[in-house]
Amino acid sequence: MGGRIPERTRRLIIATDAEAYSARDYTGQVRLQEDLHEVLEAACTEGGLDRASWELQVQGDGEIAVLPVGTPEDTALSAFLDGLAQALHHHNRPLNDAYRVRLRVAVHQGNVAYGRNGFVGTPINEACRLRDCDLVRNALADAPGADFVTVLSHDLYKDAVADGTAGLYRWPFERVAIEIPSKAFRAEAWLCVSSASGQGTGAGQQGGREGSGGRSAPEGPAPAAAPSGKAPDDGAGPGRAEPPTPSQTFKVKKGDMTFGDHYGPNIRNYR
């Protein structure tokens, strides 16, 4: 075996994936990839983040982003979540449900490096497992009015949220336990489901009966409705419909999780 072992550096990791990519046809998958790129670019613009400095490993319906060495974690996380909420709200508001972009986002930290086929390091694997576990998938599926769900590793939450100075208090995270026996993976993490208005809903704020499908509406006034439109009958394109309703609440039921690894080999910078 030849070659030099790449040097690792401690970085902030953001792993993103779009919901229901494989359920779309060819045209829908092409469109979703374009939409995902536009949304993440807009999220960084809205949050004042320099996305051109991020190292990216694209995955078709998602990406792994490794931020520059020395990135202030609490500030970057707060800016990204606020920017993503705005970007998804503006992107999804005029679209029918079939065309909306809904995301699972996992954020972690740790020592990573670049290998021949992409990022290397246990924190990369852990970020993807947090993002793709059933608990996080179900949290988004059970909140049809939400644009995205965020899961943070325990260490990142402790360092950047619990003791952070940025405006992360607007995102009420709830502690969850994730276990993936097939991967020998167990972790404590922190979950937050966004509402259609861009605010967060923690698991502890959820209503309804566990496992029963019952849900109650969140407290507080609903966002102002936009003018309604009519969707096209032929399904050929995104018509203008009513904006998403406020996020319905959900109850996470903890248990064994399953996960399928899917990595892409491409690393690139967007300039």
From TrEMBL:
Compositionally biased residues, Low complexity: 215-230
Record region (Disordered): 198-271
Superkingdom as given in the UniProt entry: Bacteria
Biased composition annotated in UniProt, kind: Gly residues: 199-214
InterPro entries given in the database record: Nucleotide_cyclase
Name of protein: Guanylate cyclase domain-containing protein
Organism: Nocardiopsis endophytica
